[in-house]
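Severity: low
Component: inverse-folding endpoint
Summary: output formatting inconsistent between runs
Steps to reproduce: submit the following structure tokens with default settings.
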């Protein structure tokens, strides 16, 4: 019975507390250590016993049916594990983590204070943490990113970009960007032990803006508190809500489903399915809508993935919200973390299930198509303001209009209703 899910970049089904332990121990620093300069996981070929287990689990549990012939098995036993995964054509979500990802002592994690997103083939700055390393280095929303620590972003798997920006505290970094169509420049930054909060709530006149950056253990209660606090502080009732899920890579699926339930009042949020022909496990929201009658817009972009895409699809298909922005990432394969020989040989992260919208439409590989397309930046020749106004905080602070083209369109849609 599928009861709870947890995730690193994609979500992971929990079948025992043992698996929970290993997932939680993969800290951001460990993920960074386990990632090589080319943006792919490093690997030491595990023991023959573990290699055989990996091959067996791929044949029996991988989300798409794969058959491996005996001659190939013998050949794979002599190969690097990442070369094996690549030759089998498995999705980028399939990862091998070496033992060092578990055995390193806890370290303070340093971050750049930046959230990146994808727009077509481009990587853009979506959000910069005020007074964080990226802010001090001069990065701004809408900047085009070309390289991180000398590695071109075209050579980095998108889901690894945040890992590349993570390291130890005070570790120097370098990011190559172009702002407003200008030349590409190298900006130096010093990683710091800071991070964005999982949510922010602000008010633009009669429209609330709920920004959710990830689905962590306490995100639901943070959202509930923000909505209650906003209702008590507002001079006049909020008539519209922008649910901003841009750049949100997912996280805890049960949190995403519960947050969807705040706006769907007991309806089906979606379903989880394994291999073709396996029964679907419905995901149903709890009853009790938080903002009945309040018009909604959901903001998504190329960095919105997994549980984020599930929420957007559910609200769109239900007619509860208009979806604005860019097509989402299309990464909704749920992965199981499999320790090898008690993690003495590391672990395998293997996609075993996929998310489907309430209408049964697959999200993985397709993403969610917005009702209204709006880009974050039109391109190098059409820049955003050099220093956009920060988008509020959790204190419910009011401002009239944001300097953010996607958010501005979302607010305009709500006010036109």
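Observed output (run 2 of 3):
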């Amino acid at each position: 019975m599928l009861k709870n899910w947890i995730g690193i970049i994609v979500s992971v089904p929990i079948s025992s507390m043992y698996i929970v332990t290993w997932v939680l121990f993969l800290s951001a620093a460990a993920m960074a250590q386990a990632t090589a300069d080319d943006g792919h996981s490093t690997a030491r070929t595990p023991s023959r016993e573990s290699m055989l287990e990996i091959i067996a689990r791929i044949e029996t549990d991988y989300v798409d049916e794969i058959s491996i012939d005996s001659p190939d098995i013998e050949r794979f036993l002599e190969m690097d594990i990442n070369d094996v995964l690549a030759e089998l054509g498995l999705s980028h979500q399939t990862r091998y983590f070496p033992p060092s990802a578990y055995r390193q002592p806890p370290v303070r994690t340093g971050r750049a204070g930046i959230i990146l997103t994808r727009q077509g083939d481009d990587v853009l700055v979506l959000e910069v943490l005020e007074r964080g390393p990226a802010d001090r280095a001069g990065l701004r929303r809408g900047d085009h990113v070309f390289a991180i620590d000398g590695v071109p972003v075209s050579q980095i798997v998108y889901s690894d970009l945040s890992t590349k920006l993570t390291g130890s505290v005070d570790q120097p970094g370098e990011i190559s960007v172009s702002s407003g169509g200008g030349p590409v420049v190298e900006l130096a930054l010093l990683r710091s032990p800071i991070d964005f909060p999982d949510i922010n709530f602000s008010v633009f006149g009669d429209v609330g803006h709920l920004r959710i950056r990830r689905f962590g253990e306490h995100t639901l209660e943070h959202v509930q508190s923000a909505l209650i606090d906003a209702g008590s502080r507002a001079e006049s009732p909020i008539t519209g809500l922008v649910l901003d899920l841009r750049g949100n890579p997912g996280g805890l699926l049960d949190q995403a489903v519960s947050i969807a339930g705040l706006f769907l009042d007991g309806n089906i949020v979606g379903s989880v399915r394994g291999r073709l022909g396996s029964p679907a496990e419905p995901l149903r929201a709890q009853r009790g809508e938080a903002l009945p009658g309040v018009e909604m817009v959901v903001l998504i972009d190329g960095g919105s993935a997994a549980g984020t895409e599930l929420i957007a699809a559910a609200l769109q298909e239900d007619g509860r919200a208009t979806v604005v922005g860019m097509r989402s990432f299309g990464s909704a394969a749920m992965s199981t973390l499999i320790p090898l020989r008690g993690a003495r040989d590391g672990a395998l992260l293997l996609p075993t299930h996929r998310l489907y919208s309430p209408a049964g439409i697959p999200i993985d590989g397709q993403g969610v198509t917005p009702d209204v397309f709006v880009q974050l930046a039109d391109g190098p020749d059409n820049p955003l303001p050099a220093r956009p106004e920060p988008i509020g905080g959790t204190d419910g602070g009011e401002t009239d209009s944001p300097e953010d083209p996607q958010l501005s369109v979302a607010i305009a849609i709500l006010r036109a209703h």
